Amino acid sequence: MKNTFRNGLKDLEFEKFKNAFIKDSDGLEIIAQEARLIPIGNKDDEMALATVFLSSLTLIKEFKNIIHEQISLTKTGKIYCFTEVSFPRIFSDDDKKRFDGLLIVVSNGKIKNSVIFEMKSKNEKINKNQIECYLKMAEKLKIDKLVSISNQFVTTPTDYPEDITSKKVELYHLSWKLIQTLGEILFLNNDLNIADIDQQNIMKEILRYFKTCSGVQSFDKMNPAWKDVVQSLSSSQVIDTKLNEQYKSIIDDWTQEEKDLALKLSLKLSKQTYTPVICDNKESKIERYSKLIGDTRSLSSIFKIKNAISPLSLTLDLRLRKIIQEMSLTIPEESNIRKLNYARKFLSKAQKNNTEIFNNIQNDIIIILRIKGKKVDRIFNCNDFLDKDKTEVSKELQIKKIDIVMESDLGNKITQNTKIISFLEERVLEFYTIVMQYFENWKKPSPKIPKIETTEEIFNTDTESN
Prior knowledge:
By secondary structure, the chain is an alpha+beta fold. It has helices at residues 14-19, 46-59, 61-70, 128-141, 176-185, 197-212, 226-235, 244-269, 285-293, 336-353, 355-361, 382-385, 419-434, 456-459, and strands at 31-34, 78-86, 99-107, 110-119, 145-150, 170-175, 277-279, 298-305, 312-317, 322-329, 365-371, 378-381, 399-409.
């Protein structure tokens, strides 16, 4: 009996891999389908998504490269992709032993890297037992990586939606929305554009498929219990223990929404240069739960935007029924006047570039001067801050940093579990577009030569006087 895969896939000659598809007296050593661009059957199921996605990696170089970056896979070598892969001579032939996808990288006629893909569509979540089973199989086959894909969002591909530890096989997770967003970014006027016109057209068809396929989803509404949770936390000082499970589910929903919003921001910001946005909130689920039912009655996130002057802090205050956004300016100038002028300069620029829209939200903006060593900060409305005469700060006080905050009242709108998502996303885009994007990072001024009266003085030195 042949056993081509007794030593796994690593460094296996690709010709032997292909020969394993040929049936002999003992049957097949490997059962798989080559990934095809046009799926057969229900376009919304996971296998249709799998074959479209994997085949696109073999057809579009730039898409392959950007996905390979996400899972730390080499860009060199030729890739081959297969779906519904099983190894009947090594593992028992049942559904649990069949991989949704297998990608192999071939260089100099040998398999150098390989990746298992596990796909979930619609509301299906990653199954921990299934992944742990696949990891054991991957170890036996000497497969390098396992990548799961679902509509669950994570902060980075190395953050896994389930508590699983893998020592020998690298574990990654991608959301379908991330994959779709990365494909869309390739069409913006940035440094990642698809060069070949035929590959562009193929990518357009793939994106059209993702957009019309119900298996690929954004996060668009909070849990049905959202209204009861908001009303409970905003109108009562006593926590309703009957809603405890609903409180926890709301935290899960918020975690998904912040990751989805980060992708949408990245897409908006990548029209010239690819600009990733990471929602890297270090708070644990327990800490978020404590804030939600505690004194603040709030949900919060922090978005780190590449090259932006500061992270963007977002808070949904259920007690006050407000969306609160904040950016912080740490300005390494010595004098308070210079710090104030620096912040005022860019705020004035924002007002000048979008005068009408800026004036519409101006009353929602406050500027907070954080004073070193003082518990009480100085707070100004936007109009007063832009007036130098109304923002005098004593020389005895030292400004540590300047926060620019926008508060948006929601009233009863906050109780609507679908509209609250669109309200959040609109306000975040508004704050960044109208205010935050006009601020530039502080740069140390060039060193100066003292004022001179004549050209000859430039070349004079003090050596003679010494």
